[in-house]
Design a protein that fits this description.
The protein contains ten helices and three strands. By secondary structure, the chain is mainly alpha-helical. The protein has a three-stranded antiparallel β-sheet.
Amino acid sequence: MSWSSAPAQTSSQRVYRKLKHDIVTCTLAPGRSLTEQELCRRYRTSRTPIREACHHLEREGLIEILPYRGYRVPPLTMAEYHHLNEVQLIVEPAAAALAAQRISSEQLRRLEQWVALAYRPRDAQSYFDFLEANYQLHVGIGEAAANESLQKIIAEIHTRLMRFFYLVISIDAYGAELKAEHRDIIRAIASRDPERARGSMTEHILRTMQRSLHLLVHAHAPPLELPATRTNHAAGFAGRPE
């Protein structure tokens, strides 16, 4: 269970979820600076919940704490996206292969539930809900691998990737392809075939990289209405990886 999904949420957890939503959807634009007072007004709460939520988001790589100045939403760069993809290709196929050997029937049932969720084109909230499901799916595969270290790495990668993925699906819809690829991965894991699972996950990551890089590099303003502070090339991306 994640920090924000406890049955009875505290004020800090509610602020965390709202702030995370606004960061992932670029409602709070990449690179934007925020004061503690501004966040208190925005989320109608006191300083303590803001500080606790921001400290948690800092650990996830979604906010930067600026001593004596406040906070900053980290900029999005092609270099970061490239580096996250590289780590994905190392750890996620291995996790899928292990999951094929170790998954329980209950874990498989949960993964199949996450695969079933789709998003509606031009519906911003459904994009966010889909990304939450995508996160749960990939982290669930890490959990099924029965390797806590792998699961933590996958959770960090996919938390940081959510902003990139949100921009991609706001530019173009390829939900049917994603759903088919996710089903292939789950079928491979369910077949208890480690190499098939490894191959399905590798293929999915490579296809996602190809789709995303094409859209993020060549697209200009996304079709969704986003804050005026955003720039072209998908919310202020700063160059390609060198």
